[in-house]
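User: Just a sanity check before I run the rest of the batch. Below are the structure tokens for the first item. I only need the designed sequence back.
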């Protein structure tokens, strides 16, 4: 996030930056409010918003109609019903420095034309980090709950809200006939940690990667905005009231009086709510709340001031996205110093390597922090951190904290060097020109990536082994039945049958489905290996270019030799070396129509001994068929065909090979995905199934006609 601090010099530059900021902020709004999964910290987000505001202040003529300064939140998500608010739900203007609070009160005085000695009493209370929710009561009954949405239209979360114990179902007798209570739905810090731990444990049980919420605010939002309210019921949500929307009568003349009424009606309101008659008193409340911030059971990110007198609030009204009578005075990000003990590398499911700082445990804002993200290796270089350094750590609305600064840059320690190896499997790590992320090249053997790769291997567009899906792959992997693609072909009927009660038939079918894939066309074979950048189309291009596994293998062997024998020159920076090596390689392999990054990925894969072992092992189980008639096309190209019954003029295998040469996908069983069934004498259940599904059935002669009609 490098936003220049000087304002743009020209109108053109300003307009361009405003356009860029509008797009960037909209993107982050969507991630945050819509997906409950922000990518950047709140501090970084706030910096973008302030930059936008500063440029708009200097160039008011350039304020865009879609300016972020005019918008609240994000449009409601599609999975919940949308309902318009009776009164808009606004946001709050932000202040970071004490002077901005003084200015806020001065502005109010000017607007209301108050004399300098007139008291402008403010209320002050914590700004809870949750999501706002409006609860509508009619004749005492809770009839509807809405999220803020974009301020005008919210999402209906009535059923979800009914699962929250803090929220009264009814107002006591004597309450106004119509009353909308507004407040925050939030999750306590401890509940949040327990929820993430529970999600992790549940995911581990089924061998999946856990969905983890970045912070309590996202957890609260993600839990409330569920289509299925029983999921919400399972999540420890809480509520704190701080305002109101449409009402048939207001129970008081001041903010403090209405809040007291809300408390009286049974709504939780903040214990730290206070009234201040001067700016200094308000700032004193701010400091008092800041001092206990870390000890509160929930996250807060500032203090909210509101003009206490409601007649003044009414006169002040709303400007743009926020009321003129309210202000959010934000706290700085919570920071602490600690030691960096080690830099570990985590391997993601797709092989991306992320460095993580292991820290001497330290309390930051009431949360014990032991890790911080370092994002990537460029970030390590930028910070200049090495194990042993003292570092400044910050938590800004995010649970994964960041390292802000190295406090001991001059200590006599060598710089951190990454050894270019995947810590999970020892394979070489590599990154492409222009990318910051290193990836493990040991896809097929890397434990961090195996399940993902094995699932890909059997998937429909790869080997397409019917009946063998992600769930079974995961189960087989966890039980030690399979670790590599070749293992799938070594599964025995006995082994499988033992897994299920009466599992004989199932096991037999599965083994047969696997056996049917022992012949595999080169393009499918290539695609099934899950090499980065080698998707279906590229695999087909490669297969068409090299035609046989043999020719492709020969090219790879010579390229790999070059790859291994090219060494960095003394003092040559890594990036330069990689570039130079790539140029040599690209010259060696014929990349016409394929592109250098594919060449790079292919060679990186082949250069890894482990990968070659996996492929050789696999080649003992399967036969890769050459691409011979790759230019032939016919009406059946790209279709899924099933052969059944006895074929008279050729063997089943020959028919299959011939079909595959036409780009036909030959399947062993009839399903909705089948396009055509070729039936010979003696065809039984498959034929029946085809008739049931209304699939076209032809005989061998019909097939021969199609095959003969190739152009
Ligand atoms: N990290 C990201 O990508 C990202 C993206 C978008 C927004 N954000 C964060 O979201 C926030 C901006 O969103 P916003 O428009 O909701 O503004 P806001 O959260 O700063 O302030 C407005 C909201 O504060 C809430 N609030 C909490 N306590 C309150 C109280 N006592 N009285 C009144 N209101 C109270 C209300 O729900 C109100 O809608 C910022 O903190 C921003 O950093 C982050
Ligand atoms: Zn690895």
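Assistant: Here's the designed sequence for the first item:
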């Amino acid at each position: 996030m490098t936003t220049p601090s000087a304002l743009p010099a020209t109108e053109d530059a300003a307009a361009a930056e405003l356009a860029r900021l509008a797009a960037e902020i909209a993107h982050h709004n969507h991630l945050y409010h819509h997906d409950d999964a922000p990518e950047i910290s709140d501090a970084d987000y706030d910096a973008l918003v302030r930059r936008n505001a500063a440029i708009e202040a200097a160039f008011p003529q350039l304020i865009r109609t879609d300016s972020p300064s005019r918008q609240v939140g994000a449009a409601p998500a599609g999975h919940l019903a949308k309902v318009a608010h009776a009164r808009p739900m606004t946001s709050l203007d932000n202040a970071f420095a004490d002077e901005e609070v003084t200015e806020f009160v001065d502005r109010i005085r000017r607007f209301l034309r108050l004399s300098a000695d007139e008291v402008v009493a403010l209320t002050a209370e914590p700004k809870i980090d949750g999501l706002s929710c409006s609860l509508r009561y009619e004749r005492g009954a809770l009839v509807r709950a809405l999220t803020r949405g974009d301020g005008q239209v919210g999402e209906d979360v009535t059923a979800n809200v009914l699962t929250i114990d803090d929220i009264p179902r009814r107002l006591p007798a004597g309450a106004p006939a119509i009353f909308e209570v507004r407040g925050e739905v939030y999750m306590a810090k401890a509940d949040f940690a327990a929820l993430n731990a529970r999600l992790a444990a549940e995911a581990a049980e089924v061998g999946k990667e856990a969905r983890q919420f970045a912070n309590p605010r996202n957890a609260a939002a993600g839990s409330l905005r569920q289509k299925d309210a029983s999921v919400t019921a399972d999540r420890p949500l809480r509520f704190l009231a701080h305002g109101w929307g449409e009402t048939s009568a207001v129970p008081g003349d001041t903010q403090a009086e209405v809040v007291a009424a809300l408390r009286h009606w049974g709504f939780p309101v903040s214990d730290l709510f206070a009234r201040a008659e001067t700016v200094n008193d308000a700032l004193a409340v701010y400091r008092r709340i800041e001092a206990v911030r870390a000890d509160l059971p929930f996250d807060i990110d500032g203090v909210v001031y509101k003009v206490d007198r409601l007649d003044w609030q009414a006169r002040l009204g709303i400007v743009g996205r926020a009321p003129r009578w309210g202000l959010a005075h934000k706290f700085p990000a919570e920071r602490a110093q600690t030691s960096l003990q080690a830099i570990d590398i985590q391997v993601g499911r797709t092989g991306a390597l992320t460095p993580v700082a292991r820290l001497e445990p330290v309390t930051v804002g009431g949360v014990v922090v032991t890790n911080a993200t370092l994002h990537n290796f460029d970030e390590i270089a930028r910070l200049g951190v090495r194990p042993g350094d003292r570092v400044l750590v910050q938590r800004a609305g995010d649970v994964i904290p960041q390292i802000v600064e190295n406090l001991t840059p001059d200590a006599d320690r060598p710089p951190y060097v990454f050894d270019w190896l995947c810590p999970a499997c020892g394979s070489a790590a590599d990154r492409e020109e222009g990318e910051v992320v290193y990836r493990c090249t040991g896809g097929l053997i890397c434990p961090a990536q195996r399940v993902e790769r094995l699932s890909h291997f059997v998937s429909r567009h790869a080997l397409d082994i019917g009946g063998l899906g992600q769930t079974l792959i995961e189960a087989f992997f966890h039980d030690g039945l399979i670790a590599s693609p070749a293992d799938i072909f070594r599964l025995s009927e006995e082994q499988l049958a033992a897994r299920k009660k009466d599992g004989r038939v199932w096991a037999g079918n599965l083994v047969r489905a696997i056996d049917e894939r022992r012949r595999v066309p080169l393009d499918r074979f290539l695609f099934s290996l899950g090499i980065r950048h080698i998707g279906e189309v590229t695999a087909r291009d490669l297969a068409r270019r090299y035609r046989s596994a043999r020719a492709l293998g020969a090219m790879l062997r010579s390229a790999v030799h070059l790859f291994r024998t090219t060494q960095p020159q003394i003092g040559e920076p890594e990036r330069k070396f990689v570039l130079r090596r790539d140029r040599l390689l690209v010259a060696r392999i014929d990349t016409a129509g394929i592109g250098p990054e594919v060449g790079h990925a292919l060679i990186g894969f082949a250069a890894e001994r482990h990968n070659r072992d996996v492929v050789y092992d696999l080649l003992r189980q399967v036969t890769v068929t050459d691409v011979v008639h790759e230019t032939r096309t016919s009406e059946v190209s790209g279709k899924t065909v099933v052969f059944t019954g006895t074929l008279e003029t050729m063997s089943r295998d020959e028919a299959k090979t011939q079909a595959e040469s036409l780009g036909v996908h030959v399947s062993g069983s009839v399903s909705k995905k089948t396009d055509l069934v070729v039936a010979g004498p003696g065809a039984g259940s498959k034929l029946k199934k085809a008739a049931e599904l209304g699939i076209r059935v032809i005989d061998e002669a019909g097939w021969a006609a199609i095959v003969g009609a190739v152009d």
